[in-house]
């Protein structure tokens, strides 16, 4: 292969790349992307250790039926995807956000006035 022929070199690399790396088997698709292969990990029992609960490949996801996923509330029940947590007006976080927004708005309007006054 002529190294100056970029297209031929790329085709050769994509077709011949197939080896075992630190993260597993490495192969490339026709578009140059690596074939996906990953583990789905979950922290459980308030520890810093991860538990493998499944894996994913180009063909889809598969989960280990013997291991349950533990969610942020500590349960194994799948949470409602539409659940939202709203901030109340009396909360400190809400007051800080409103104050920051107000300061940002005042600074922006001040810059606009300065630019309008000093434009050439």
TrEMBL record:
Keywords: Membrane, Transmembrane, Transmembrane helix. It holds the Pfam family ANF_receptor. InterPro entries: ANF_lig-bd_rcpt, Peripla_BP_I. The chain crosses the membrane at residues 94-117. The keyword Zinc does not apply. Its main location: membrane. Residues 5-45 form the Receptor ligand binding region domain. It comes from the Eukaryota. GO terms for cellular component: membrane. SUPFAM superfamilies: Periplasmic binding protein-like I (SSF53822). It is found in: Membrane. This is Receptor ligand binding region domain-containing protein.
């Amino acid at each position: 292969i002529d190294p100056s022929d970029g297209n031929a070199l790329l085709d050769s690399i994509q077709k011949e790349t197939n080896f075992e790396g630190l993260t597993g088997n490495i192969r490339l698709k026709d578009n140059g992307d690596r074939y996906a292969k990953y583990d789905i990990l979950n922290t459980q029992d308030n520890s810093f250790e991860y538990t493998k609960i499944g894996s994913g490949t180009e063909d889809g996801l598969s989960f280990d039926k013997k291991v349950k996923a533990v969610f942020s509330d500590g349960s194994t029940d799948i949470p409602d995807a539409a659940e939202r947590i709203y901030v109340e007006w009396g909360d400190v976080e809400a007051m800080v956000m409103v104050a920051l927004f107000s300061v940002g708005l005042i600074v922006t309007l001040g810059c606009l006035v300065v630019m309008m006054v000093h434009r050439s």
